[in-house]
Design a protein that fits this description.
4 strands; 4-stranded antiparallel sheet; alpha+beta; 4 helices; flat; 21% strand; 155 residues
């Protein structure tokens, strides 16, 4: 078992496009469906696994481009430390001023280490100024507990 780290920042409007953050349905729309439905299905099918937009289900980071992996660790504590460093790096830009206090990050990092050690995934998200969004995730791999059939992106 090992862990992969993912980080995404971008416009809140892009993050809010939830259709592009879900894997495409296994069956395309039936013949005779509205053209806009067919077009949207094609867009999602083409973009879901090729874009670095955060998926709604954390485990699906594993199907994103290999270039989306920001780090790989064998130890849960190392992966949680990476997460903590990224949180501290972005904390001054968190939109709610109360979230900028870096003292509150230590319990998040400790909880993340525990979850990762148990084989679970960890995901944190924060609204940043401008309005932008920060998505941080560490996904357990080989196998992933939530969706074990997903292949490791760096194997």
């Amino acid at each position: 078992m090992h862990h992969h780290g993912y980080l995404w920042t971008g416009p809140k409007a892009r993050f809010d496009d939830e259709a592009l953050r879900r894997p495409p349905h296994p069956d395309p729309p039936p013949a005779g469906s509205r053209p806009e439905l067919i077009q949207r299905y094609r867009q999602v099918a083409a973009e879901f696994s090729t874009s670095n937009l955060p998926p709604l289900e954390t485990a699906y980071w594993l199907v994103k481009p290999r270039s989306s992996v920001r780090g790989t660790w064998d130890e849960a504590e190392e992966a949680a430390a990476w997460l903590g460093k990224r949180l501290a790096e972005y904390a001054p830009r968190f939109a709610p001023e109360r979230d900028r206090n870096t003292l509150r990050l230590a319990p998040l990092v400790s909880a993340a280490a525990g979850r990762l050690h148990s084989g679970a995934d960890v995901a944190y998200g924060y609204y940043l100024e401008r309005p932008s969004y920060l998505s941080l995730a560490v996904v357990t791999c080989s196998p992933n507990r939530a969706i074990p059939e997903l292949a490791c992106p760096v194997a």
